[in-house]
Amino acid sequence: MRYPSIVINLDEIWLKGLNRKFYIKALRKNVKRSVKGIFQEEFQYKTEGAKHILTCKEGFGEEVLDVLTKISGIGSVCPARMIPADFDLIMPAVKEELEALGELPSTFRVTTKRSNKAFPYKSVEVSRKVGGFVKAQFGMTPKMVKPDLTITIRIIEDGIYVSSRKLMGMSGLPVGTSGHMVCMLSGGFDSPVASYLMSKRGVDQTFAFFYAYPFVGEDVKDKIVELVGELAKYQRFSPLFVIPYGPIQKIISENCKPDYRTLLFRMYMVICSNRLAEKIGAKALLTGDALSQVSSQTLENMAVLDKASDLPIFRPLIGFNKLEIVNLSKKVGTHDISVKPHDDACSLFAPKHPVIRGDQVYCRKFLQDFPLEPEIEQAIMGAEIYYFNKSNELNQVSVQDFFEPRKSSVAVESEI
Amino acid sequence: MTDSSIYLDHAASTPLHNRAVEYLEKTFRESWANPSSAHKMGRQLSKEIEGARKLFLKIARAQKSFDFIFTGSATESNNMVVRSFEGSKTSIVNFAGDHPSVVEPAKLVTRSEGSSLIGISVNENGNITEDEILKVLNHDVDLLILSHVNNHNGLLLPVEAISKKIKNFKPDLHIHVDGVQAFGKIEIDLENSGIDSYCISAHKMGGPKGVAGLFLRKSHKLKPLLVGGGQEYGLRASTVNHPGIVAWQKVLEETYPNIASSFAHVGQLKKEIIKKLSLSNLPFAMFESHEVNVQFSPYILQFAVKGLSSDILLRHLEEVGIYISSSSACSSRAKGDSPVFSALGIPVDIHKNVLRVSLSSETTLAEADQFCDSIISIHGDLMGMLGGRR
Hints:
Chain A has 416 residues and is an alpha/beta fold. Chain A contains 17 helices and 16 strands. The model of chain A has no long low-confidence stretch (mean pLDDT 91). Chain B has eleven helices and 14 strands. Chain B has helices at 18-30, 40-59, 74-82, 100-109, 130-136, 159-169, 242-255, 259-279, 310-319, 339-344, 365-387, and strands at residues 6-7, 66-71, 91-94, 116-119, 143-147, 155-156, 174-178, 197-201, 212-217, 284-286, 295-296, 300-305, 322-323, 354-358.
């Protein structure tokens, strides 16, 4: 089925005051990028107050609707047919719309929204007349509250949009309007869901995965790349840094108390992420920590990590239960990837009794004795960098090309 | 594969023998006709194929009572035999520790109501003798499947003797033997046995991939997997793989005369490795029984390093250019317990630590020593790393 128009409804963006234009500009850019990535035909994008409307002669397919529901800032999308602002054309359009649906449910209502004050009929009148028409033509029963089907008629300046479907979007704010964070990814359920939640709030993310080869195999790296492929659908340009972490783990393990291994690994990952953030202009870290889910997520242990970080660490899942996270991962689309088993380096190094109340003094001292700055720099500059372009195709870029000032990063961004 | 690397995974596949490489380079350019064609070009190739066939029958001592059919893989050969028994109420006796290419068809074929798949268990020494087989053999059994050499642990069965004894008990049973890991390394005398079919594979012995074979006793009928042009006695329709077959023949001609000396050389290497590893600090566990009657192929060495997961060791060895196998292809990664390893008698708690080294006649003592030194040193480093400080 192809839809000649799609009406995009905003919610939270509309609450913004003087800087509303900033958000709308960002949203527009993101919508254009995402739609162009999967849709080859020419299309128009126009704004009518709180409505943004996409139109295309050839019509949009389901895949465009799907992509729009993954763009944060969009409240809902309605595929619609557009007719000139003429009352007599409404009934035939409604008839066409309902016939195209095939099997019709038993109850319906008509909602009319009129922003074109020049239109000769009031919203209520239009709803009443159309309602009567639908009842007579299709035998459906009008029901005001919780009907099976809602027919929406939007009367705006340049025309009337008739739709019978509404897909809920992510709401939130457009990506690129809330700053840039380094998202620390693992292959589990949590960090991808954390990424999604922050995409929803408009955060640009650069992903960092600490790759403990040869203590783990390549399958965990493949899993992470696959996860980023899903998460990139909610982002605009989010490179993945696969950072070789084995050498750093080795040094830590050779020199620390065994029960501090896991905590110290995480501490250095946080420091490493800080250094990466500095290089790419990110202002915070993002993790999937949920309070007390695993040993490194106790209050005291997270305090150790916070102390080691110059940048704030955002933890959107701090209050979520495991089951809630797993369920949310299904909506995000990462559940089936996260569920695949993989070797966690941590299990090789996992001490029998990992420390649950990390001693700040010991950790600070360890960091003083082993700052590992050259090793951290080497790890970041030895990273493999992957990204997904606007068509969600996997690409790789060398560290040199990525950090080459202006020229290449512009080239890379414009390609996407 | 660079010169500096040490390849010890010959049970999985082998480097193409020089004679085969030379021959293939030439024949791909010059002899590409269809061996089934009626014209001179085709007839010439067909003649060469028959020459190869005769050699294989000679080496397996099977000229009188057997045919030899060329196939595309040992998996295909195994499927050809086992799936001929597809029907209602089929009863098959097999060993769960065998290669999936012979275990899976057996499972498939015995799925139907009234059919049965009966497993042989190893005895307390990890061996399979006639006793173990006779324990589960009953009058209804149609097919018995054995492996001449097991691809995981190298267990070597005297299949000629066993099959003769079983045939005394049940003459109309079909006995199929998977000889993939044995042929070319260990002598086989099909004539003087109760074996009815025996499969082999080229790429396990220096030949190219994509060509394999099946010895089949003349009196036995099979249902072909592939029908069409009637090639290979109507049992395997397909354009016959002339280059692959003749290349394989050339390899056999080169290597077979040294079968005994190669066996001895590889036996020495295996002993060296076991000795060196046992004397070191490596928590080295082997599963081979020391019972006199239990034999193992010297070409395969299965062992475990306690405390370290096999894939971590594999990756570290890879980093220094040494390639071995963790023979975990069939194991369940998530849980780490493999039904194949359990069937072989390996305790479950050690499944994740099992490794396999497989040698060739070209492997040198220096390479064997290098492997031992590397694995000992890697283990030492990793243990040291996990020791930490106070």
